[in-house]
Amino acid sequence: MRLNPFVAASVDLGLAALSAFRPWWVPKKHQQTARLVYAGATGVLSAASGAESYTGVSTPLDPKKENAVNAAIGIGSAALTYAGWPLLTRFNRWADDKLGSWGVKNPPLVSAAVSIGATALAHVAVLALDHTIDWDGDEDWGDAAEQKIVLPVHIRDSVLAVLDDTHALDPHTAQVLRDQLAAAEFWVARDHEAGSDEPGEWLVSTITVQVPADAERVVPSRQTYPVRGHIVAPDGTDLYLSIETADGRIASIDLAEDFDIYPDRAAEANGEAFGMIDDGDAEDWDDGDAGWEAREALFVLRNWPRAGEFEIVSDADRMPNLS
What we know:
- The protein is an alpha+beta fold.
- It is 47% helix and 14% strand.
- It contains 11 helices and 8 strands.
- It has helices at residues 5-20, 31-49, 52-55, 63-83, 85-101, 107-136, 138-144, 153-162, 171-183, 265-269, 289-297, and strands at 146-149, 185-189, 206-210, 223-224, 227-232, 238-246, 249-257, 311-314.
- Strands 1, 2, 3, 4, 5, 6, 7 and 8 form an 8-stranded antiparallel beta sheet that branches.
- The longest helix has 30 residues, at 107-136.
């Protein structure tokens, strides 16, 4: 529940006070001041009513943009209220006369009660909607949530094999990343379809890595580490164990297909680049289920490739020859 009771109560009481106020209570010489104060108060309360803490409704905007929207709402409400002061006065007189004809002794108090009642009903509706969304979406949020794990030994060994000085383009960078790995925490997305609470049984293509903020960083700050582990899946798909960095720290360990940014030019001319197929390959799709399942099995965390099962490849060897 995101509704803030204190903010909601403060705004509701303010709106009730405005509903109960009558312009003719103020002497004529102070009417302009009352008009400005009333408009300003309406603007402030309108802006506060748009805040997430009041409504309980999240918005896709970042805080700065949300504040700007709320401020614009407040300014617009204040301007409309100031301009509509004469109409407000006439409406209040009409409402008081109507309520008085029905035997109501204190019309302003009734106006305040109606205001409180309306906002209370709005809160109930918002909280009911919030509860419904959370209840319906529990499984979806659970699927997306990440769980902290202990990095399996075979995966740590595989990553260290990729970071070994023997293959490193820059031994210092490799050492910094090894130090980061030793101090990091690891997270994977919860896989409800696995039918197991054991992370080793989950299908995982990305392990999120959290490195301490005070760890030494590498340059460039954002990159795919240029040494990777290559393995061919049973269906013939090339898979790569790679290390992604962001802000100079390890951000993730990934097991994924390779989307070659340096396709062979001859293959490109023949329409074969980027995995394009010709008509002769179409029949292979008919019996592809078995190969797909075998490849999918590699993504079960406990089945991720061991250090001795993949070939070490360097992106330095894949750069195009532009001569």
